[in-house]
Amino acid sequence: MQIWLIRHTSVAIGQAYCYGRTDVELAASFADEAQLVKAKLEPLPPNTVVVSSPAQRCRKLANILGGELTVDDDLWEMNFGRWEGQRWDDVPRNELDAWANDLGGTPPTMAAARF
Q1: Is residue 78 in a domain?
Q2: Based on the structure, what is the number of domains in the chain?
Q3: pTM for the model
Q4: How far apart are CA 58 and CA 77, in angstroms?
Q5: pLDDT-derived band of residue 114, with 50, 70 and 90 as boundaries?
Q6: Is the pLDDT assigned to residue 53 strictly greater than 90?
Q7: Residues 56-60: contacts with CB within 8 Å, 24+ apart?
Q8: Which residue range(s) make up the domain with 89?
């Protein structure tokens, strides 16, 4: 059995913004990027199962890859709370450092998202 872990293609808001649960749009380059991913996986073996996050940025790519699609809510990205939609440079440095130094024990701040 082979397992491939594939992240979604580029998003329209770019890399400067924090997003996890926010269902951001895909970049205009989606079709080209998706075809490059698909080409690396072809041909898919018979009975291939593609498991995707519920985020449209992930489902859209999963649909193009082929195979039997399953959407799993447990694959949603992390909820960054009030960091969602903020530029990474605008997230308070002390909060980022605390999270980065203990990813498993220090969750991002979970105040209401602003995005």
Answers
A1: yes
A2: 1
A3: 0.83
A4: 10
A5: very low
A6: yes
A7: 56/23, 56/26, 57/8, 57/9, 57/11, 57/23, 57/24, 57/25, 57/26, 58/8, 60/8, 60/26, 60/30, 60/34
A8: 9-115
Q: What are the tokens at 42?
A: 């072809």
Residue 3 placed within a domain: no
Distances (CA, A) of 104 to 42, 67, 100: 36, 33, 9
Model confidence pLDDT, tens digit, residues 57-111 = 999 999 999 889 999 999 999 889 889 999 999 999 988 988 888 888 877 765 4
CATH code (residue 92): 3.40.50.1240
